[in-house]
User: What shape does this take?
Amino acid sequence: DICPGFDDLLDTDSDGLVDCLDNCPTTPGQIGTACDDGNPNTVGDLVDGLCVCAGTVPPCNDNATVLTVTTDNSASETSWEIIPIGGGTPLCSGVGLSNGSTFGYNCCLPNGCYELRVLDSAGDGMANGTTGGYVLTQNTGSKRIVDNSGDGLFTSVSQVANNLGFCVPVGNDAVLAAHCDKMDWVSNDVIQAQTNPAVTAQLGLSNSNSGYQLWFFNPDGGNSRRLLQTHAAPGPVSGPPANIRASYLRLSSIITQPIPFYTNLNVRVRTQVAGVYSEFGPACRFRMDPQCSTTLLTTVADPVVSCGATGLTLASTIYAATVPGATNYQFEFSRPGYLRRITTAVRQVALSFVTNPLQNNNCYQVRIRISLDNGQTYCPFGQYCSITIGTALCSPPPGMSLEEQEETATESRLSLWPNPNDGALVNLSFTGFDQELTTLGVDVTDMYGKLVATRTLAVQDGYLNTTLAFEGQLAPGLYLVNIQAGEQRYTERLMIQR
Assistant: This one.
C-alpha cells in the first residue's frame, strides 16, 4: 500500500495525485502550484496554504479603481467590462461570478475617459431573488464614480447614457455632505454644491463662464442631465451672497428634461473657472419623489358635496377632491365592525360594490389617500368625512371618537360571508393585523380538527379582502377557518349547507 489504512485509489480533485499524498485533496494542484483564480486582473495565481487559488494585484502607478459587484441568484448571467469611451478593447472585465456574493475587482486605468458596462445575458438585470448592484470607486473606495448598489434593475446593459461614462482621475468638487446620499428630495428643495474658492473669486471677472455644473444621471441608462449655473445666471435662489449663489440649484427650476420621480440617480459636480472645467468629483446617490398631498371627500359642489352627504343610496357615487398628478385614489369606509377599502384610478367611487358591500340605512366614516406612482406607494390618509346611506343618524356613539370607532372596526378582524354557505365561494375580509406582513396563512379544519384545505395569501398594508374557491372540498357541516398572521391566530366558524 502507498498509504496504509487509506484508499490508495481515491483522487477527489482528479489532479493525478491520490488524496493520501495530496496536501490539497479537494483542490487541483498542490500548495504553491500555478493555477487560475478566474480574475483577469490578478497575476501570479498560486494555490495558497488554505488550498485556495489566489493571485495578487499588481501595483498601479495610474488610477487604481475598484468595482464592487453584489450578485443576485443568477450570477452566471452577469459580466462586466471597462472600455474606452466610444468602444474598444476592454481594459478590465469579469465573468463567472457566484450567486448572492460580493466581489471586489481592481482595475488600473491610465488618465482618460471610459465606460463601465454591466451586462446580463438573460435580459432581466440583477434582480433574481436578492437584488444585486455595483459600485465603482477610485482610491480604494474613497471616491465613488458610479453607485448602483442594491439597484440592479435593468435589462441587458447597465451603462451611463450617451457614452458619457467617467473620467479619471476623479475631481474633488461635490455636493454638500448633508446633501450627499439624500434619498427624499422633493421638487421645491434646493441642492447645493460645496463652494470652491476659485469660482468665488471669479465674480466680476468672468461671470458668464464661471460656476458649478451638476450632473444627474441614472447608472442603468436613460436620464442624464447636466446643468451649469454661473455667476451671470445663478438660478432662482435668492438670499445667498452673489459670489456663491451659483452653487445653489432649486430642483423645480429644471424644466427641460426634468429629474424623474421615483428613480435612484447619482449626482456629481464639477466647476468652471474662466471657461475651464475641472473633472467631475465623487458621486452621491440622489432620489426625488413628488411631495405627498392629502385629500378628502369634496366639501363644495365639485361636482357634488360628498363630505357629510346624507340620504345617499347604494346607487350613489361619491367624489374626492382632485389632487393633480394622482394615479390612484383609495377610499376607506369604516363603522363599528366594518372596514372596506376601494382603489380607483379616478377620484370617484360608486357605492354599489358587491364584495363586502355597504348596507342601507347606515352611516360610514370615509377617508381617502392617493398614490402618485400607480399604487406602489401611498400618501397619508386625509381627514374623515361621514356619509349616510338611507335615513341613519350619523354621529359617533356617546363618548366614542372617530379614532375609537376605527379601532372598534378593526377589532372585528375576520369576516366570512355568506355564512351559512354552499361551499363553492367564500368571501373573506381580514383587517387590523401587522402592516409589515406580506402573506397570511389560511387553513380550514373540520370539527374534529382534521385539516381539509390550506392557502397562502398575499396581503398589503394590513388589509385583506378576497374570495376563496373550495371546489367541492367542503361537505355539509361546521368548519373552523383559521388565519395565521405572524405570531397571531384568528378563527371564525363557517357553516356549509346544501
Summary: The longest strand covers residues 362-371. The radius of gyration is 32 Å. Confidence is low (pLDDT under 50) at residues 397-402, 404-412.
